[in-house]
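Q: What residues go here?
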């Protein structure tokens, strides 16, 4: 995760480390996940800015993108591996999003920026079986209209959101 004024000077060092170790590196834009990280839009280093830094040193060739993939992938023109960027702020991909997350509180969240989730723990403790759960999840997914990243700019920064520590990445 690259944050302006904090670690953007480490981009190339990380790339070189990954290339020498044969690892695939993914950069992700700094996001307003949860309500506690003090996110500010001007601290976002965009995916394009990251790619510009990398490609000045190591020319890149873009790979075809799978519709549900979160990362845009680029291979190094010299054949020594690949790097990816997740442009969740500057180029949101909500229309292709297929992610659901089960929180440690037993709620199913259909968006990283959800305010509330489906209470599967309560259903289980109320005696729901596999078929009941399948129907609950299916109905929840069909009602889903999440597109937070596409409408981020029009939402208030004071909106409460689930913290990443509840639902993972
Ligand atoms: S903001 Fe929500 S709907 Fe959009 S890509 Fe992220 S998790 Fe998916």
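A:
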């Amino acid at each position: 995760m690259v944050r302006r004024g904090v670690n953007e000077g480490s981009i190339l060092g990380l790339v070189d480390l990954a290339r020498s170790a044969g690892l695939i590196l993914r950069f992700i834009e700094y996001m307003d996940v949860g309500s506690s990280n003090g996110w500010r839009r001007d601290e976002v280093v965009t995916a394009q800015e990251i790619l510009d830094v990398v490609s000045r040193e190591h020319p890149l060739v873009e790979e075809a993108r799978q519709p549900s993939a979160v990362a845009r992938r680029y291979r190094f023109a010299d054949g020594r591996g690949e790097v990816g960027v997740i442009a969740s702020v500057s180029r949101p991909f909500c229309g292709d999003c297929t992610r659901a997350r089960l929180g440690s509180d037993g709620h199913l969240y259909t968006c990283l920026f959800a305010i509330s989730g489906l209470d599967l723990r309560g259903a289980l403790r109320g005696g729901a079986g596999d078929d009941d759960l399948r129907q609950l999840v299916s109905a929840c997914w069909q009602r889903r209209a999440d597109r937070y990243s596409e409408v981020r700019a029009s939402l208030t920064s004071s909106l409460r959101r689930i913290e990443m520590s509840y639902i993972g990445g």
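A: Context that may help when evaluating the design: Residues 31 and 89 are 7 Å apart (CA to CA). The longest strand covers residues 72-76.
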